[in-house]
Structure formats: C-alpha cells, structure tokens
Amino acid sequence: MHVKQRKAVPSEMCHHSALLFILHPSPSCALHIHEHSPGKMSVCLLWIGLLHISLSALWQAANIQAAVTIDEVKLTVLPADNVKSGTKVTLRCEASVSQSHRQPLTHSFSLTQDDQVIYSKNTSDSWMERSFSNARVSNSGGYQCSVHINDKHKKSNTLPLNVTGLQIPMLKVKSDIVFEGGDVIATCSAPEEMGSLVFFFYENDREVRKASSTINSVTTTLTMQKLKDIYLHCDYMVLMQPTEGHSNKSNMVNVTVQDLDVITPQISISPNVNVVEGDRVQITCNVQLYSDLRLYLTRDKTILRVSHTNFTHSLVVRSEDSRDYVCKAEKGSVQKKTSYQLNVTELFSKPIMRMIPDQVFEGERFTLTCSSDVISPAKIRKADIKYVLLKDGQSIAEIATYDDTASLATNGNYCCMAMAKEVNKTSLPFILKAKVPVSVPVLRVVDKVIVGKPFRVSCEAENGTFPITYTLLKTSVPVDQKVVEAADRAIFNITSISFPKDIDNFRCQASNNVRLLRKTSKPLRATVIVPVSRPELKPEEVTVTEGTDLILICSVHQGSDPITFTWYYNTVKLPSSTQEVRSLEGRYVVKAIERGQRGDYYCEASNNANETKKSFPARIGVSLALWKKVLIGVFCILLLVASVIVLTVFSKKLSNPHKKEQATELSVKPPRPKSGDPMRISLTLDIEDNTALNGTPCVMGRNVWSENVSASDSEDHTDENSELLHPQEVDPSGDVPVKITTEPEYSVQDTDVQVSTPGVSEQAEGVSDAHC
C-alpha cells in the first residue's frame, strides 16, 4: 500500500506543476517541474498541452457567446385585434437575433397585459405563442412581449386587444316560496367569463344588492319583506373593463311571499276599568305557537317581559303607569304586534314640600311642611297617608312638619315621601342653603389719597350671602349705594377731600337681610398725601466771591414727605442735584463757584402726589477773587502815578514857555505831612470793593493844597514808609543838576504825592480826582 502511494505522487505533482505553469508561465516554473520529476518531464508537458487546449476552447466559446444582439421583437394578434366574445385568439411573439457564432440560444419570453405578466416561457425557439380558446371581455387590454437572451433585453410594441360581448348570466334561487320576512338564497353566475366580476341583483327592476367576486359566480341572501310576488333577476360587469358596461339581464325568477298572520299576538288586561293606584292588574299576551318565535311585552320602549310562549304579567299600578302596553311577536325579521291602553286614576296627589320662611339666615328658625291631597276618597282617607322626611336620601323624621334652626349642618337636599296602600310618591327635591349674615365691612382705599384729587374706596364684608347692599357714609350721611350680586366688594368714587383729617369722615354699611340691622365699618384710615406748595429758593448770599461755595436752600411751606428737590441753573439741571428728604427744606452746594456760573437759579419740588412745582428764579452774582482785586488796585495806582507825573510836566511847560529852569521837588510823604511846606499836593488812593455785578474794584483819589517845602527841610526828612524826591533850587541863569533821593517803601493805603514848584500851584489845583 505504501508503494502505491509513492507511485501516485509523480502524477499528482505533475498535475500541480501543470496548473502552476499555466497560471505562472515562467522559466522558474518549468525548472520547478524538472527538479521535482525529471523522469516524467514528457508526461507533464502532455498534461500542460491538454489543459491549454481546453482553456483556449472555453475562452473562444465565451467570446462567441458574448457577441449576441436582439434585432427585433414582434408581437402579432391573430385573427385580429378586435374580436367578439368566444373567438379563439392567439398572441405570437417572435424575436430576431444576430450572433457571431451559430449555436443554440435560450430565449426568455414574457407576455404582459396592461403591464401585468400573464405568461412566461423559456425556449430555444425564437418564437412563442399564447392562445385564448374562448376570448372574453376580461382578455381585453394592451399586450406587450419582451425577450431576454443572456444580458440582452428587448420589448415589442404594445398591441391592443378588444373583445366585445358579455355572456348572459344565469340566476338560481334555493326556494321560490318564502314567508313574510323570510330569506331567499340566490346565485348569479357567468360560467364562461374570467377575471374579477361585479354582480347586481334586482327585485322588480330595483337594485337591492351588489356583490363582487374573483370567480364567475356569487351567492347572496335576499330578505323578502313585502307581501306580494317578487321577480328577481341579475346582471354583471367586468371590473377591469368598466367601459363594456353591464351584461344582458339574466333569466327572471318569481318568488312568492306568504303572510305570517298566524304569529300576530293578542293582549288582555284585567281589570281594565276603574283602575286606581295601588290596584294589581294582570296583562296577558297570547299567540299561536310557532317555532323560532319570541314574545315581548313593552311600555314606552321599555321591555317588561320576554318569552318564547304565552305569558301573564302582574304589577301594582301607579298613576304614571297610564300608558300603551304592546305585545309583540317576532320571527326572524318579521314582527307582529298588538297594543292596549291602560288608564290609572291617582290615589293621592304627589306631595309638595314648602319652607317657612322662604329664605332663612343662619341662626334663624325654619319649618318644613309636606302635604298631599286625596283624589280617590272611596279608597283612602287623608289620615291614611303617611309622610317621611328625607335629607340627602336619608330619613330624618316620619312627620309632615319639621322645625329646626338654620346652620351649616342643616344645609342639604330635602324631599318628602307620601305612602298609602303600597303606593308611595316623592316630592320634588328642595335645596336648603341657609344664608350667611353679612359681617362687619371693612372700608379701604383703592388708590392713593391726595388732597384735592379724586380717589376710590372699597367696602367689603368678609362673610355674607349675596346679594349684599353696600352704602357709603360721609359724616353719617349716605352719599352712595351699590348692590353687589356676585363680586367680592363694592367700589365707590370720592370726589376729593380738602384736608387730611377729612379722611376720617367716611364709613360704609353692609346688609343682606332686611330683618337684621346693617353692619357699619370703622372710619376710613389711610395715608393722605398733601401736594407740595410752590417752593422758594433762598441763597445764603446774592453775590458770592469767585472760588467760594454757593449754598442754595429750597423750601416749601407744606407737603407730605418724602419730598424730592431738584436744582437748576439757567434751565439746566445741576449735577447730582436731586435729593429726597423727609423735611420741608433741602440744601444744595455749588462748590468753588466760577464767574461763568453767575445767572438765574431755581428749584423744583415734588412728592408722591406726582405734581411738580417750580420756584421763582434767583439771580446770583459772582465777584472777582481778592487777589484779582489787589492786582487791579496796584495797576490803577501805578497808572494814576504815571498820570500825575505826566500832568505835572505838562503844566510846567505851560507855565514857563521860555524854558526857565526852576527847582522842582517831588516828594512822596507819609500820611502826616509837615505843615510848613510852601505847596503840597496830597493824593490819597483807597482801594475799595465794589459790590456791583462785575465786582471790579476802583481806586479813588483826592487832592489837597499843601505848602512849599524848603530844600533844607526836604533833605532832613526821612521816613521808612515814604519815598522823597528833592530837586534843588536852580539858578534861573544856568542849568543845575537835580538830586533825587529815594526811600525803599511806601504805603498803598494812604500816600501823599507832593509837588513843590514856584508859580505852578494854580495849575496843580486842577488835578482834583482820578478814577480807575
């Protein structure tokens, strides 16, 4: 066994090597075959040749099979495309195919009617036929043939086939004699028709039933209700060909309907006259026995009893039992009935419940009464009637009169029941709900109360049954009244009040029971807002110095706090100037006021009265700062001194036209000059503040006459607060230099300027005052 396996190895290896060579035709592959089986080289080559030839043949066959094309698909209808019903019709489909190599082909044919496949066939033939031995209307439609060959596909044109003419249907019934209300089982058929059909059934030419079927017949059930001969027939139509209309009528079938008077019942009532409430009556229903029969006793569409045989129904009647009683027999869908009217006389009337008084408040006494009248005195007396009082369906007393005190516990649904001779009657329900007396009302304000403005108040009682009458009082005198039906409170409009204390004059009353006194509220309590009066702006100073603080005080004479003050400068609101205070006065400080801030200032005041009032404007002036005044004063002094010097020189020139030299002494002396000077002109300069709007200081001076001062006295005088100029006397015949002595300090407050010049005192007198 082992030896056989070794002999088989070269053959298997040769097959493997041959496949390897075919898949990988390379020198290395051939070398592989030679190395493993050098002795069998020729056998392997033979295998390789055979495999190569086989694969080449398969490859060529595949190439030849792929070269196929469908030239044309033709569909033919024989004998014609318009035929009558019952004609044999053949549909022939032919395919014209071109191929590169003649070999058998498989044709897959499909035949469709209105896009629905009705026939398929695979064949090697290039044609296919489908025949209808007896064509029917259901075969009408558009037909199309398609062919599949390998991966090729082609369709023919669509050809119509029109089959005209419907078969006459046939009608059959299971029984042509039925009782009234009985059923007739009818079958309508068209044996040679195909497809989905709709059948119509007619009763004396009136359509009574329509039924659809996927086969050529249908069976239905028809109920015969009328007592006469019925003629039935049927026809049909093809569902897919509605244009063909209905077929011709089927054969006519006569059905006879027999009457069912044998099941008509009889009804009797005993006693049937002078029936009074409480009497027992017997109602009997009789009918001739019949199979499948049901017997009913009804009253006002209410079934009292049901039976398959005759029966007697017994009951104790009441006045509401005066009705028509019907005995009805039913067999299938047929009904026969007989009625009888029963009249019942009342034994006593329906009780009536009353309450005295008709309206009751909590805490008040009330009485409930129940009464009924005797209608049949021959049967009962009034004393025979018993009464039971019911509350919420529970018995609370077996009396006709009931007394109690109204409260929340007595509220509920009351009724009474009257009973006599097994007859009981119940009164209509009476709902007792005790009214709640009105509580003391509360008077409140609805809006803000502002002196001199209208406002609203509400009057409300926490408890009390509606309707409630509310009355508004002013100093105990009614001024308005409202009746509240369902709201919670009454709203009253008050025109205005003149003073805050007037709010205490208002009260309100509430009432919902004329038998009780009205309840009066406490006086109205509310916060009364007094509008602010016209504010007044009071600056601490009308004119302030530049750089100082301006304090503006705005005050009102009256107004409820908090009061809001706002300050304005020339209609522009000052920054952070709105203040809310709880006093009649507000302050605003303008820090380090400037000259550009002079002008009109005013303020506004308002409070919760929502009415803003404006003060009259106050005009504020701003004067220059002190250092500016001093600077201007010094400038004016210097200007005045310069002016005096110029005037002096000018006057000397006028007094000495020949330019004679004279001794001139200019002296600036302290406030106490010497009295021995020959001529003295004293000029005093005072710097004063001007409180006018521009605030510009002015320097005023005055002139006094003084004596001439000798040269020796001028030289000897020396003052630390003055500056002296001592010109020497000059010889008229020649020019002599002038000696000037200057002291370092002088007083600005009081300075005398002396000019001593012979012959010029009269000119100096003209210099009286100097203003800057």
UniProtKB/TrEMBL annotation:
Residues 748-760 have a biased composition (Polar residues). The chain crosses the membrane at residues 630-650. Residues 265-343, 351-426, 535-617 form the Ig-like domain. GO terms for biological process: cell surface receptor signaling pathway; immune response. One of its GO terms (molecular function) is transmembrane signaling receptor activity. Gene3D superfamilies: Immunoglobulins. The keyword Methyltransferase does not apply. Residues 660-679, 708-772 are annotated as: Disordered. One of its GO terms (cellular component) is external side of plasma membrane. Keywords: Disulfide bond, Glycoprotein, Membrane, Signal, Transmembrane, Transmembrane helix. PANTHER family: ALLERGIN-1, IMMUNOGLOBULIN FC RECEPTOR. This is Platelet endothelial cell adhesion molecule-like isoform X3. It comes from Carassius auratus (Goldfish). The gene is LOC113052829.
